Amino acid sequence: MSNSINYQQLADDIKRWGAELGFQKVGITDLDLSKHEATLQQWLDNGYHGEMDFMERHGMLRARPAELHPGSVRAISVRMNYLPVEAGFAKTLKDGSKGYISRYALGRDYHKLMRKRLKQLGDRIQSEFDGADFRPFVDSAPIMERPLAEKAGLGWTGKHTLILDKDSGSWFFLGELLINLPLPVDEPVEEGCGSCTACMTICPTQAIVAPYELDARRCISYLTIELRGAIPEEFRPLIGNRIYGCDDCQLICPWNRYAQLTDEDDFSPRQELHSPQLLELWAWTEQQFLDNLQGSPIRRIGYECWLRNLAVALGNAPSDAAIIEALENKTEGVTDMVREHIDWALERQRTGVAEVTKQLKRLVRAVEKGLPRDA
Q1: Could you tell me what the cofactor note in this record states (predicted)?
Q2: For the whole model, what pTM was predicted?
Q3: What is the extent of the structural domain holding 16?
Q4: Rounded CA separation 217/51 (Å)
Q5: Does residue 247 sit in the same domain as residue 325?
Q6: Could you give the C-alpha distances from 349 to 45, 96, 116, 318, 321, in angstroms and in order?
Q7: Catalytically annotated residue among 139, 215, 263, 374
Q8: How many helices (H) does the chain have, and how many strands (E)?
Q9: What would the pLDDT profile of 247-258 be if each residue is shown by its tens digit?
Q10: Binding residues for cob(II)alamin
């Protein structure tokens, strides 16, 4: 590469090109994450990763991004908004007969979309400089994307461990482009959580065990997405009607009053997933599950875990003879793991669910006060 390259101009161009590709913010950082290694090791030693063996398998590689693509000296970190118009948080959470799906999963899988855009950004850089070498990442390798985003000035790490921005909240995806160009780096932004602990208080399962420390084994997103076995019984009533993921810590965050809505059509809710009736989803065959969720991130949990999650939600729903009948009709031909959750749900339904949990009520009140006007 020529020594005459104006790297500052190139960095400015990269940010402009990124904006043209639909990224709401682009930042640049070096690859030194050494200060995070001890924290990562302690998190693993505590067993907070649960059954996510891949976290332990890759160990400290996550904190050493330069090893993922030899020759890289910088990370171009990007973010893309995903909050859809008329997200309907409170409406869905209020109605126990409906299933709540994390807002990021309502549309098409973001991984391919963002990775394609990142590759286009890399190709554009490469077209300007033949010696440029890059590799895009969107949850596709063991890399600590949030610390990189924080160093690149995309936001600060909130107490719920997500990246927050004063102008945009936290409803955005992250992606990275490792590159071999010594671009000028951006400065981190000032932390803005202060003394607020709303995210810690609202978490139904108290998964945020300390500021900036998440025990994934208690997290509803982990329990409904990453866990492949039975959901511990102590957490089932707390899951409520959340059938894929959980947004509670984001819903309560004061900074999300300033969240920006997405303009990406691919992130718009699919009709069958926007405030869906639990019984309608329960009636899906495995083939319908595969067909209806083609291109959706939900598909990767598989039909067995899908039924498991739905059974828990049906067990938490208001008592209804139709629910009892639907559960009873599916006790045959399912795995032992699913059958266990059906039996639990039937017991709940038959004895009656007295009331929505206090935490759900608090969440709904908070959501109704704090959502963006069009969400």
Answers
A1: Binds 2 [4Fe-4S] clusters per monomer.
A2: 0.89
A3: 7-86+106-179
A4: 8
A5: yes
A6: 39, 12, 46, 8, 8
A7: 139
A8: 16, 10
A9: 999 999 999 999
A10: 62, 139, 157, 163, 174, 221, 246-247
